[in-house]
Structure formats: C-alpha cells, structure tokens
Amino acid sequence: MSTIPAYFAANVDDHQYIEAIGESVNAMISGLESDQGQVTRSLETLKSSLQRHFITEENIMSDLSYGGLLEHSHSHILIVGEVGDCLRSIAGGDYQQSINIWPRVKAMLRYHVQRFDQDLVRHLEQAAKQPGLTVASSPPLAALI
Ligand SMILES: [Fe+2]
Ligand SMILES: [Fe+2]
C-alpha cells in the first residue's frame, strides 16, 4: 500500500502547525513585555519544527530519486539559516533581528511552497499512480505534529 497519501495529509497539517508556531512567536516578540528567554525558546521550537518538516520532505525526495532534491534542499537550508542567524544575534545580545523574524520567514516559506513544494506534490501525484509504490520513510501524521 502506498504511503504517499499519508504524506500529503501530514504535509498540509505540518505547514499549518509551523504557521501557528510562527504567529505565536510573532505575537510574543511584539508584546510589550516580551521575555527574551521565552522568545529564544519559541524560536528554537520554530527552528526544530522546520527542520523536522524539511527532513521528512528530503527523505521522500531521496526515496523517489527526485531530480529537484538539491535545489529544494538548498531552499530549506536558507529558511532554517534565517532562524539560526536570528538566534545567534539574540545570544549575542542583539534583539533587533528578532523583531521581524516571522514576517521574513513566512515570506520565505510562502515563496518556497509555491516554487518548490508544489512541484514536489505534482511529482508525488505522478509517482503515486505507479502500482505498488511505497515511500517507506513517510512518517505517520502523529509523528509530525
Ligand atoms: Fe513543505
Ligand atoms: Fe520544501
């Protein structure tokens, strides 16, 4: 049985989950009494959620020998790097970068979904039509959220 449909469901839910974390980080940063320790922990959660989601996609692309894997993965690295740079700035005492971190990452993610994820979904839809195909590393939904 193909696990690709499970991936589709997980991917959509996962994007929504990441957006929800990002919005809460943004609300916290914009708050009048934002606690930098809490901001840092929330940004770390955002970063690890992004990494987990991206690794899932990269495993699937690898399983399918997807031709766009390198370019797609490079875009993942840039997005995680943006959050990582922000965390390093905060650790160095510079909170300025954190003010617009979520709007920046959200814009990068929106572009990423249009430019890369949608192409991957089209590729998966084609692959799913092949009889007997299984993507073994596609995790169950519960493992992603
Ligand atoms: Fe994605
Ligand atoms: Fe992606």
Q: In short, what is this structure?
A:
With 145 residues, the chain is mainly alpha-helical. It has one domain (4-136): Hemerythrin-like (Four Helix Bundle (Hemerythrin (Met), subunit A), Up-down Bundle).
Key features?
single chain, 145 residues, mainly alpha, Four Helix Bundle (Hemerythrin (Met), subunit A), 5 helices, 0% strand, elongated, disordered C terminus, binds fe (ii) ion
CATH class: Mainly Alpha
The proportion of residues forming helix, as a percent range, comes to: over 70%
Cofactors and ligands: fe (ii) ion
What is the H/E string? HHHHH
Largest sheet: none
Strand composition percent:
under 5%
Please give a structural write-up.
The chain has 145 residues and is an all-alpha fold. It is built from five helices and no strands. The chain has one domain: Hemerythrin-like (Four Helix Bundle (Hemerythrin (Met), subunit A)), CATH 1.20.120. Helices cover 76% and strands 0% of the residues. One fe (ii) ion is lined by residues 57, 72, 76, 112, 116-117.
Write the layout of secondary structure elements.
Blueprint (H helix, E strand, L loop, with lengths): L3 H27 L5 H28 L5 H23 L9 H28 L12 H4 L1
Helix pairs in contact: 1-2, 1-4, 2-3, 3-4
Bound molecules: fe (ii) ion (2 copies).
The site of one fe (ii) ion (FE2) has 5 residues, from α1 and α2.
